[in-house]
Write a structure and sequence with these properties.
Order of helices and strands: HHHHHH
Number of domains: 1
Mean pLDDT: 85
Subcellular location: Membrane
Protein name: Polysaccharide biosynthesis protein C-terminal domain-containing protein
Strand content: under 5%
Membrane topology: Multi-pass membrane protein
GO cellular component, one term: membrane
Main location: membrane
Low-confidence stretches: none
Shape: elongated
Amino acid sequence: MACVQYGVNLFSQTAQSFMPELIYGINRNLSKARILLSSLVIIGATLGLVLGIVGTSVPWFFPNIFTPDQTVVQEMHKVLIPYFIALSVSPGTHSLDGALLAGRDLKFISLSTFGCFSLGAVLLILARNGGYGLPGCWFALVGFQWVRFFLNLQRLLSPDGVLYSEDMSRYNLEKLKEA
């Protein structure tokens, strides 16, 4: 799982490393930034599907690696579908997060992440209290992941987003005052 997290975060780091120059550097080229983002999302979607397939195949075919308890194995099998869906969207979401960070759209990231976490917490409480059990909690996580993905994608593809806006005033440097 640590390798998965390292590999997935690589998409965010790639966007943060190469996009700033394309978005607001001397050789500004928003079309190349959009191409880089689409490449990262396509690679992320492919990797996400591979991770989802491998990540769900192991507990499905070899559940005794984790535990010999059949009750736990049955619970594992109940959450494999939401586990697959959550794993498959994660690399693409990290690519979009990295692009937003590269574009310095920090206000949007902070507000959308706070909103998603808050809504996710409410969904978890409702799933727990509603008797949906562990699968309900996993589907709440899936909802959290997909909402983050679509919010970030919508922000990046909007005419006001960092990949389409020709307004350079948001990148003006200001002198800092001494504290």
